[in-house]
Specification:
rod-shaped, 4 helices, mainly alpha
Amino acid sequence: MSGHGFHVHGPHDHELEHAAQGHGGSHTNSIAMFTAVIATVGALFGYMGGATQANAGLYKNNAAIKKTEASNQWNYYQAKSSKQNLSELALELAPASRKDFYVDEIKRYKGEKAEIKVAAEKLEAESKSWDQQSDEQMHQHHRWAQATTVLQVAIAMAAIALLSKKKWLEYVMYGAGAVGVIIGGLAALHI
């Protein structure tokens, strides 16, 4: 930029040099500070948006695994029901000397089915819980994404305000920044 009496710069370098040295005035300095703060907050919001999206995917995967395990249990339950049905048929057709055996088999199958049913219902409940957690994470992800987008608009408004020196654009910039931070607060509070 400037040094040893030699002065060469691009179209915006002079303004940046003066802003860095504190010669930009309160207009330039406040916009530069606002942009730095909002960009930092936006980066944090962006990270949280990615993290919640990843969590939602993982939770949805866990829900699918639990649902598949529950389905396997219900298939096992059906197999036991078929065996119980065959034992009930055999009880009707078997000679008296074999009837006690089939009565015991029917009781065993009923007991096994009861255990399988409890396990399947537990897996279904776990699947539902993972689904709900995934939905909550996706809702939170959308809040983080909304907040990040509004902060990006605020940063763009800051650049336009800095270049155009229009005071009303500064108000838009500050307003968008405030809205973005509020939306981020809603995301942090799971609202």
